[in-house]
Design brief:
The protein is mainly alpha-helical. It is about 60% helix and about 5% strand. It is built from five helices and two strands; from the N terminus they run αββαααα. The chain has a two-stranded antiparallel sheet with strand order 1-2.
Length: about 80
């Protein structure tokens, strides 16, 4: 459960499938990681792609990814497949 170990992340039933999101948004950790894996930088995520996010929130998404790599990789892959 993200709320217990991450300051900016939560999981809410019924929101984004119960996956980890940035608190106060509907932006999933997998959304942020997918952008970074596809060439965005932390600066471009915060300034252009997802301007509602602060750098600290993006870094926390990265920390969550390090702790839950398998889970997030599956979500990113599903999202990329759906976009194709």
């Amino acid at each position: 459960m993200p709320a217990t170990g991450y300051r900016y992340l939560v999981s809410l039933p019924g929101v984004r499938g119960g996956n980890a999101i940035v608190e106060g948004t509907r932006i999933g950790v997998h959304d942020v990681i997918g952008l970074l894996q596809n060439g965005e930088t932390i600066d471009t995520v915060c300034s252009t792609a997802l301007p509602a996010l602060k750098r600290a929130q993006v870094y926390e998404c990265l920390a969550y990814y390090e702790d839950h790599r398998g889970e997030i990789d599956v979500l990113v892959a599903r999202q990329m497949a759906a976009a194709a």
